[in-house]
Amino acid sequence: MGFSYVSSVIPPRDCKLRLTFENGEKKVFDVKPLLSQRPWQSLNDLEFFMKAKVFGCSVAWDMDTDIAPGILYENSIPE
């Protein structure tokens, strides 16, 4: 299945990323299911979670914590 790259991200306090993809689609990705897994455990810190940004074609928080664009696209729901 094809996917699109992330063009913008808004990290609300509910642990759901509001995403806009380069194809214009707006979707919501729930991060909660990942919070118990490495390397995403650090996202339990709300201050750190709120630092989400577009890095390259995906979403990242630092050099060790990111989520691939295909995962974001295929596992998010339309806004």
Provide an overview of this structure.
- This protein has helices spanning 46-49, 69-74, and strands at 6-10, 16-21, 26-30, 53-55, 58-62, 65-67, 77-78.
- It has 79 residues and is mostly beta strands.
- Strands 1-2-3-7 form a 4-stranded antiparallel beta sheet.
Write the layout of secondary structure elements.
Blueprint: E1 6-10, E2 16-21, E3 26-30, H1 46-49, E4 53-55, E5 58-62, E6 65-67, H2 69-74, E7 77-78
Antiparallel strand pairs: 1-2, 2-3, 3-7, 4-5, 5-6
**Proportion of strand residues:** 35-45%
**Adjacency order of strands in the biggest sheet:** 1-2-3-7
Overall mean confidence score, pLDDT: 95
Morphology call: globular
Query: In percent, how helical is the residue content?
Result: 10-25%
Keywords for this entry:
79 residues; mainly beta; four-stranded antiparallel β-sheet
Give a brief outline of the structure.
By secondary structure, the protein is mainly beta.
